[in-house]
Write a structure and sequence with these properties.
The complex is a heterodimer of chains A (114) and B (116).
Chain A: E1 4-7, E2 10-13, E3 19-25, E4 31-38, E5 42-49, E6 56-57, E7 64-68, E8 74-78, E9 87-94, E10 104-105, E11 109-113
Chain B: E1 3-6, E2 10-14, E3 19-21, E4 23-26, E5 33-38, E6 44-50, E7 56-58, E8 64-68, E9 73-78, E10 87-98, E11 101-106, E12 110-115
Parallel strand pairs in B: 2-12
Antiparallel strand pairs in B: 1-4, 3-9, 5-6, 5-10, 7-8, 8-9, 10-11, 10-12
Classes of the chains: A mainly beta (114), B mainly beta (116).
């Protein structure tokens, strides 16, 4: 009954470094999402995956890439981190392709780029 | 395109007082509306949702929200708050179905602080 698991919980990167944020869900959900949360801006969608094998850009995709490794896992990669990518990152999943069931969120990854 | 505006960035209230968190949305199609709560250092949890039917929706922890189509609003209310309600609250609207997925669009959030 873990729900959505994100790793790591905290990370500090230097400008230019790369890293991958991991997300896994054990609820047999079909769609998965990556959001970033910044003060006063709410949550903004980075990338999403409507089903296994598909990914698409959200509102703020620049500087990120994603991989839907299988139905359970959806990773977010920063190829060359920038200070503007300092944020809290949330992964979410949903049973269907529609949002009617509501999303289940992970506990977040707090990323600082110096 | 869908959008959500939360009219207050911060709302301080005293314990046991009533509270209303305001949310307005814009959409050119039928909408589904949600309120999520985020406790400190945690992810978001679904508080309640409006899909259709009765315009008054009841959620967890004594919260309720009223869908008002003419006012394009979905305000969240609780008649008597507790210290444990201190959290950030997000209103969200479902966007159009694109590429097989129907995404949520979130408001900016309202930080509710309960004072003893």
């Amino acid at each position: 009954n873990a729900g959505v698991t994100q790793t790591p919980k905290f990370q500090v990167l230097k400008t230019g470094q790369s890293m991958t944020l991991q997300c896994a869900q054990d609820m047999n959900h079909n769609s998965m999402y990556w959001y970033r949360q910044d003060p006063g801006m709410g949550l903004r969608l980075i990338y999403y995956s409507a089903s296994e094998g598909t990914t698409d850009k959200g509102e703020v995709p620049n500087g990120y890439n994603v991989s839907r490794l299988n139905k359970r896992e959806f990773s977010l990669r920063l190829e060359s981190a920038a200070p503007s990518q300092t944020s809290v990152y949330f992964c979410a999943s949903c049973l269907g392709a529609t949002s009617l069931d509501g999303y289940t969120f992970g506990s977040g990854t707090r990323l600082t780029v110096v | 395109a869908q959008s959500v505006t939360q009219l207050d960035s911060q709302v301080p209230v005293f314990e046991e007082a009533p509270v209303e968190l305001r949310c307005n949305y814009s959409s050119s199609v039928s909408v589904y509306l949600f309120w999520y709560v985020q406790y400190p250092n945690q992810g978001l949890q679904l508080l309640l949702k409006y899909l259709s039917g009765s315009t008054l929706v009841k959620g967890i922890n004594g919260f309720e929200a009223e869908f008002n189509k003419s006012q394009t609003s979905f305000h969240l209310r609780k008649p008597s708050v507790h210290i444990s309600d201190t959290a950030e609250y997000f209103c969200a609207v479902s966007g159009p179905r694109v590429q097989g997925a129907q995404k949520l669009v979130f408001g900016q959030g309202t930080r509710l602080t309960i004072n003893p």
